Amino acid sequence: MVAPEEPDGVDDKNSARLRSITAEVLEVDPADIDMGAHFYDDLGASSLEKAEILGRIEREFAVRLTDGSVENLDSLDDALVVVGTAGGAGE
Questions:
Q1: For residue 46, what are the CA distances in angstroms to 12, 40, 56, 83?
Q2: How many Å apart are CA 91 and CA 89, to the nearest integer?
Q3: pTM for this predicted structure
Q4: Which domain holds residue 16?
């Protein structure tokens, strides 16, 4: 997936927020999370942890993740695309 064009700084801000959410759920340092990391393979997330991460993304970014989009969310990069596409600013 290719991330949509975002105004300067928005992509970085959203990336930081996604890392923070993921780090909190997985109890790791946000600096240790690469945006290309896969939830299961690289981060070692369980299906329940992934569900918690995605639920927090919905709340934080004020977006609704459909069943179809959730199935395709394998990494934080994928989540960033969905958030950007949905226009999730969540401020």
A1: 26, 7, 15, 22
A2: 6
A3: 0.81
A4: 10-26+37-86
